[in-house]
Amino acid sequence: MTIPFIIAIDGPAASGKGTLSRRLAEAFELPHLDTGLTYRAVAHALLESGQPLNDEDTAVEAAKAIDLGALDPAVLAVHTIGEAASKVAVMSRVRSTLVEQQRKFANSGRGAVLDGRDIGTVVCPNAQVKLYVTASPEVRAERRWKEVQERGILKGMDASFETILSDIRLRDERDMGRADSPLKPAEDAHLLDTSKMDIETAFQTALSIVKSSKPE
Ligand code: DC
Q1: Is the Cβ atom of 21 under 6 angstroms away from ligand 1?
Q2: Atom of ligand 1 at shortest distance to CA of 171?
Q3: Is the pLDDT of residue 197 over 80?
Q4: What is the pLDDT of residue 213?
Q5: CATH number at residue 152
Q6: Residue 107 resides in a domain
């Protein structure tokens, strides 16, 4: 049996890892899972049913009910769900429930691209390629701000550049500061700082890293 070819992509909010992951998945014809959507789906289920975000038993039940095939990025992209997701994501049993499903996804075929915060460190520590995609908070805020202008995804939020920047810093603090699976590069991750790159340059750089790690 051939070993699945797994590409693990981690990085902070708005680093560009989502776009890179989708494009790499396309290039290598592999399925892609944005694991942030799984945390968002749990948060969404709790918000919808008026349940608290910090009750672990309830959140674990919601996590068990998540269907990876039915995650709707359009519904889950909204700002309030992202905020709630970063709170839900601090609970260890919620994480282990979702991680189990993410690992199954990664290992069920000839490979996969997964992106998130802990793919290279926790979910797929044996991934053949690990990328840690980052950019300065200012650059990420600028990109998010432009995206908001174009798509209006921060419904109900004050979307000034300053608000977005402070929100990104807050999210970084929460993602990097939590006790369980904090965001950090795996020791064997390739660091890709996209602060001074456009998306095409970032993609070409990521592509050549992955190609050099891929067995024929
Ligand atoms: O990437 P995103 O904005 O969709 O992620 C939403 C939240 O989910 C993020 O603040 C942290 C959490 N998350 C996580 O803890 N681990 C992952 N692998 C992916 C996301």
Answers
A1: no
A2: 10
A3: yes
A4: 86
A5: 3.40.50.300
A6: yes
Q: What is the mean pLDDT of the chain?
A: 93
Range of the domain at 116: 6-213
- CA-to-CA distance for 186 and 102, rounded, in angstroms? 18
The lowest-confidence range among 108-117, 149-158, 191-200 is 149-158
Ligand 1 pocket, residue 35 CB under 6 Å:
yes
Number of domains within the chain = 1
Does residue 1 fall inside a structural domain?
no
Q: At what angle do helices 36-48 and 79-88 cross, to 10 degrees?
A: 100
Q: Is residue 64 part of a domain?
A: yes
One DSSP character per residue, 156-194 reads TS---HHHHHHHHHHHHHHHHH-SSS-S---TTPEEEE-
Task: Return the higher-pLDDT residue of 146 and 103.
Answer: 103
Contacts of 165 (CB under 8 A, 6+ apart): 137, 138, 141
- Residue 153 DSSP symbol: -
- DSSP conformation class of 119: I
What Cα–Cα distance (Å) separates residue 55 from each residue in 43, 48, 52, 91, 181? Answer: 11, 15, 6, 9, 19
Question: Where does 9-55 have alpha helices with state H?
Answer: 17-27, 36-48
Per-residue pLDDT of 134-187, as tens digits, reads 999 999 999 988 888 877 655 555 678 999 999 999 989 989 999 999 999 999
Ligand 1, pocket-test mutation among 9, 19, 32, 35, most atoms within 8 A of CB: 35
Residue 36 inside a domain? The answer is: yes
